[in-house]
Recover the amino acids of this structure.
């Protein structure tokens, strides 16, 4: 008969726990890339009230995620950075004016797939707001807390208007457009931004 002191050692020697088979690590799908031949258009016009307009059509730089989804903060930061940098770059390429007194911004979002349950308002936080910031002034702030205290945080801004307050901006207004014609060239969708000069119109 085994003594009480020997039981733990006896049990550990005779009983073995079943080993779990290691699960193969799931391979991540590579992030789709916007084709070099994706359509980019910059046009200037005049609306029915005689106001100057600029229209920028370009492929979405990243996913157009709804605010209803549970978005990890690193993903959120990456998305907002992509959208801000994209509108800043396209504003520069289109040679838009700077320092306008007031403008109206209209965004038309075109997705790579057709769905009827999308709500335009849900794309304001992660898509339209950072895209609007790219048209505004550059961002610069000294970090006061945490490990990065003392460092300077910056983000590009074109300077189309002085700020995105109602004094300078009407909108942004968001609508959902038709499905993109070629999702392979625009895997994240497409954006059409119409800028209307309201400088002569009282706020």
């Amino acid at each position: 008969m085994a003594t009480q002191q020997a039981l733990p050692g006896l049990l550990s020697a005779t009983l073995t726990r079943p080993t779990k088979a290691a699960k193969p690590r799931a391979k991540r799908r590579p992030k789709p890339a916007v084709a070099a031949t994706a359509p980019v258009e910059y046009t200037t016009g005049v609306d029915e009230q005689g106001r100057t307009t600029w229209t920028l059509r370009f492929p979405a730089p990243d996913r157009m995620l709804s605010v209803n989804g549970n978005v990890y903060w690193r993903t959120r930061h990456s998305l907002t950075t992509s959208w801000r940098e994209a509108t800043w770059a396209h504003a520069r390429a289109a040679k838009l004016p700077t320092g306008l007194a007031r403008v109206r911004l209209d965004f038309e979002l075109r997705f790579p797939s057709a769905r009827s349950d999308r709500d335009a308002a849900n794309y304001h936080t992660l898509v339209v707001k950072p895209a609007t910031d790219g048209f505004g002034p550059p961002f610069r702030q000294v970090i006061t807390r945490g490990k990065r205290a003392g460092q300077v945080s910056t983000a590009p801004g074109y300077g189309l208007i002085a700020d995105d307050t109602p004094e300078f901006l009407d909108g942004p207004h968001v609508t959902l457009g038709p499905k993109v014609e070629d999702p392979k060239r625009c895997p994240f969708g497409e954006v059409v931004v119409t800028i209307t000069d309201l400088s002569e119109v009282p706020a």
Q: What stands out?
A: The domain at 43-136+152-197 is CATH 3.30.1330.70 (60s Ribosomal Protein L30; Chain: A;). Residues 73-93 form the longest helix (21 residues). Helices lie at 7-14, 73-93, 124-135.
